[in-house]
Amino acid sequence: MIERDFYPFPDSSNNDWIEQIRKDLKGKDFDSTLTSEIWESIKISPCYTKEEGSAFSHPILFNLPSPYPGQNPRISSNIVSIFPEDEKTANKEILEVLENGAEGLVLHLTGTENLNQILRGVLTEYIQIYFNPIDDPAAMFSQIENWIGSISLRTDMLNGGILWSPSSSLFMGKEHWDQEISTGIKLLNYFKTFKNFFPITIDFARYANAGGTGIQELTFGLGEIVDIMDAFVSQGVSISQALQQFAFLASAGELHFPEIAKLKVLRILISELAINLGASNSADSFHLIVSTSLWTKSRIDKNSNLIRQTYETMAGIIGGANSIWVRPVSEKTASILEKRIARNLSFILKEESHLDKIMDPSAGAYFLEDLEKQIHEKVLTQLADLEENGGWIENFKSRSIHSQIKSTRTSIQESVLHGDKNLVGVNKYQGKTGTVENFSFEKIEEKDFELLPSRASYLLEIQKSANS
Question: Which residue among 171, 191, 329, 384 is least crowded, i.e. fewest CB within 10 A of its CB?
Answer without folding.
Answer: 384
